[in-house]
Automatic annotation (TrEMBL):
<dbReference type="InterPro" id="IPR033922">
    <property type="entry name" value="NAD_bind_Glu_DH"/>
</dbReference>
<feature type="binding site">
    <location>
        <position position="218"/>
    </location>
    <ligand>
        <name>NAD(+)</name>
    </ligand>
</feature>
<comment type="similarity">
    <text>Belongs to the Glu/Leu/Phe/Val dehydrogenases family.</text>
</comment>
<dbReference type="InterPro" id="IPR036291">
    <property type="entry name" value="NAD(P)-bd_dom_sf"/>
</dbReference>
<dbReference type="GO" id="GO:0006538">
    <property type="term" value="P:L-glutamate catabolic process"/>
</dbReference>
<feature type="binding site">
    <location>
        <position position="91"/>
    </location>
    <ligand>
        <name>substrate</name>
    </ligand>
</feature>
<protein>
    <recommendedName>
        <fullName>Glutamate dehydrogenase</fullName>
    </recommendedName>
</protein>
<keyword id="KW-0547">Nucleotide-binding</keyword>
<feature type="domain" description="Glutamate/phenylalanine/leucine/valine/L-tryptophan dehydrogenase C-terminal">
    <location>
        <begin position="180"/>
        <end position="407"/>
    </location>
</feature>
<dbReference type="GO" id="GO:0000166">
    <property type="term" value="F:nucleotide binding"/>
</dbReference>
<dbReference type="GO" id="GO:0004352">
    <property type="term" value="F:glutamate dehydrogenase (NAD+) activity"/>
</dbReference>
<feature type="site" description="Important for catalysis">
    <location>
        <position position="143"/>
    </location>
</feature>
<keyword id="KW-0560">Oxidoreductase</keyword>
<dbReference type="InterPro" id="IPR006096">
    <property type="entry name" value="Glu/Leu/Phe/Val/Trp_DH_C"/>
</dbReference>
<keyword id="KW-0520">NAD</keyword>
<dbReference type="InterPro" id="IPR006095">
    <property type="entry name" value="Glu/Leu/Phe/Val/Trp_DH"/>
</dbReference>
<dbReference type="Pfam" id="PF02812">
    <property type="entry name" value="ELFV_dehydrog_N"/>
</dbReference>
């Protein structure tokens, strides 16, 4: 079983090995500043008590308050949360926002509880970590299974416990509760900006311009929108129930309507049902993992035919798979660059909350566009300087920025 935290540390060592960093500095970054496991007793609708387990990991705050999502998922574990908090430190540094890295999660399936239970679980979690978080300490945001309504409850519970309204206690909230215009589409949109920049460098040659996306949730669906604007063809899509394929391109509007109606992508008329494994092995130009981590391993990486892997999910490629991709001359655009648009817009939301401002969607996406283009330019110049992979280049850039503040 792949341990995502061990993978994250390996990525750090690999990047540090090609640049000149003090080994003590690198070693220090392998340990989160702090992590907690909390138990959350919740009275369920049937009158019986259930105990849930939650985590929060605060990796590093050299650049600013810890910042990162909250994952509600049955298979969440501490190593995963520590790895995700680690990646947040680097991602925030790559996109150059004043935040450190944090992440949290609760072990359960949010689809299997009622809305009232979901609220009680969320508030119970915040009561247990209240003394560790706050707008200028650690600011939770959304992640898999935890959307805007949950972020509202987090902000509300934090405000209630602290005795004053604190909109900046969480990000990814609904608009009436201090959410930012543009946050929902931000991660996918930001990925679209990076993809456009990458393609403009002509790193891959393609006649067909084909893309497959694994995961059609928040990130996958907005990235798909951006790809459509680029004039590329999405030939395959998938969700947890399986995938669909159409060599002439999938009609996104029809796919969305079909998923809303049936709860799955499979069975979409005019397309062929395929498995998630088959999607990863398609003969296409760009493959986008946009679901969960550890998708590419030593077992399936040799079978990947795509020329470029564009990581919208966090940690989809194990170090073994990364090595195979490098050997096979695949270009990998790393998660800490590709999906950093989400946290960048969380920063915009936090900033608006603190300064009591409200920006339009146009203003937000315009600022995001500038930030993402700059992040790509910064990573690209290091990639050119060291003649290395985009992942190592992104790590080196982040390390330089963190080092400057830590020393
Ligand atoms: P989401 O819950 O909205 O969507 C996840 C999608 O993945 C769903 O369509 C689900 O059906 C699908 N999925 C789950 N298991 C799958 C499997 N085995 N095979 C194929 N599809 C599967 O979550 P999201 O917010 O879109 O996040 C997706 C990824 O992007 C995660 O790795 C997350 O950490 C990362 N991410 C999200 C954000 C954000 O702003 N939401 C920001 C940065 C990174």
């Amino acid at each position: 079983m792949n341990n995502p935290f061990e993978n994250a540390k390996k990525q750090l060592d690999l990047a540090a090995s090609i640049a000149q960093f003090d080994p003590n500095f690198i070693e220090r970054l392998k340990f989160p500043d702090r992590y907690v496991e909390v138990s959350i007793p919740v009275m369920m609708d049937n009158g019986e008590q259930e105990i849930f387990t939650g985590f929060r990991s605060q990796h590093n705050n050299a650049l600013g308050p810890y910042k990162g999502g909250t994952r509600y998922f049955e298979q969440v574990n501490l190593d995963e949360i520590r790895a995700l908090s680690f990646w947040m430190t680097f991602k925030n540094a790559v996109v150059n926002i004043p935040f450190g890295g944090g992440k949290g999660g609760i072990i359960f399936n949010p689809k299997k509880v009622s809305k009232a239970e979901l609220e009680r679980i969320t508030r119970g979690y915040i009561q247990k970590i209240f003394h560790l978080i706050g707008p200028e300490i650690d600011c939770p945001g959304p992640d898999v299974g935890a959307g805007s309504e949950i972020m509202d409850w987090i902000m509300d519970e934090y405000s209630r416990l602290s005795g004053k309204k604190q909109l900046a206690a969480s990000t990814g909230k609904t608009l009436p509760n201090g959410g930012s215009n543009g946050r929902e589409e931000a991660t996918g949109f930001g990925g679209g900006v990076i993809l456009r920049e990458v393609l403009s460098k002509n790193l891959i040659s393609s006649e067909r311009k084909t893309i497959a996306i694994q995961g059609f949730g928040n990130v996958g669906s907005y990235l798909a929108e951006s790809v459509r604007e680029l004039g590329w063809k999405i030939v395959a899509l998938s969700d947890s129930k399986g995938g669909i394929y159409n060599e002439n391109g999938i009609d996104l509007t029809k796919a969305e309507t079909h998923k809303k109606k049936t709860g799955a992508l499979r069975g979409l008329p005019d397309s062929k049902d395929i498995s998630n494994e088959e999607l990863l092995e398609l003969d296409i130009d760009v493959l986008v993992p946009a679901a969960l981590e550890n998708v590419f391993t030593a077992l399936n990486a040799p079978k990947v035919k795509a020329k470029m892997i564009f990581e919208m999910a966090n940690g989809p490629t194990t170090p073994e798979a990364d090595e195979i991709f490098n050997k096979n001359n695949k270009i990998v655009i790393p998660d800490i660059l590709a999906n950093s648009g989400g946290v960048a817009t969380s920063y915009f939301e936090w900033y608006q909350n603190i300064h009591n401002e409200k920006w339009t969607t146009g203003e937000v996406l315009d600022k995001l566009h500038k930030l993402m283009s700059q992040a790509f330019a910064d990573v690209y110049s290091i990639q050119q300087k060291y003649k290395t992979t985009f992942r190592k280049a992104a790590y080196i850039l982040a390390l330089e920025r963190i080092k400057e503040k830590m020393l």
